[in-house]
Design a protein that fits this description.
Elements (H helix, E strand, L loop, with lengths): L2 E8 L2 E8 L3 H6 L5 E4 L3 E8 L6 E12 L2 E12 L6 E5 L5 E2 L8 E10 L7 E10 L5
Parallel strand pairs: 3-10
Antiparallel strand pairs: 1-2, 1-4, 4-7, 4-8, 5-6, 5-9, 9-10
Length: 139
């Protein structure tokens, strides 16, 4: 696989939330392991990947996050990469941080779906995941 892992990293908390993608079972079980984000905290997504055989042009992420009936769709362009034996991490956003919403109305589980594609519409990885906005970080 191209994608090795997906993490949420935090500006003021040293324990990232991690999903690994080394097997079909891990990909399938991703949505059963909620990634916990403390409300109001600053965070980034970090994707670690490797391009194995052919260069990947226009590598991008299409993501949808849904709570109740409200969906937020996003597309992030990661760029083009030559084949390499090394895994590369990419942070999203590259500069700055996302801020998690805070307040009772925002707490709870959000369902996410993320798809990694390229200019040729190859599906490098599609997975479902759960984001949990909570009062505190995971223990």
């Amino acid at each position: 696989g191209v994608i090795q892992e997906f993490q949420l990293i935090f500006k003021d908390h040293d324990k990232p939330q991690v999903l690994k993608f080394n097997s079909e079972a891990e990909i399938k079980n991703a949505k059963k392991t909620p990634l916990v984000v403390k409300e109001g905290c600053q965070y980034k997504m970090r994707v670690t990947f490797r391009v194995q055989h052919d260069a990947v042009n226009g590598f991008q992420i299409d993501s949808t996050v849904t709570k109740l009936s409200k969906s937020v769709k996003d597309n992030v362009m990661l760029g083009s990469y030559p084949p390499s034996n090394d895994f590369k991490p990419i942070d999203i956003p590259r500069q700055g941080w996302h801020e998690a919403p805070s307040g009772a109305v925002y707490r709870g589980d959000y369902k996410g779906k993320m798809r990694f594609t390229d200019d040729e519409k190859h599906d490098h990885l599609t997975f479902e995941w759960t984001l949990k906005i909570a009062k505190e970080f995971a223990a």
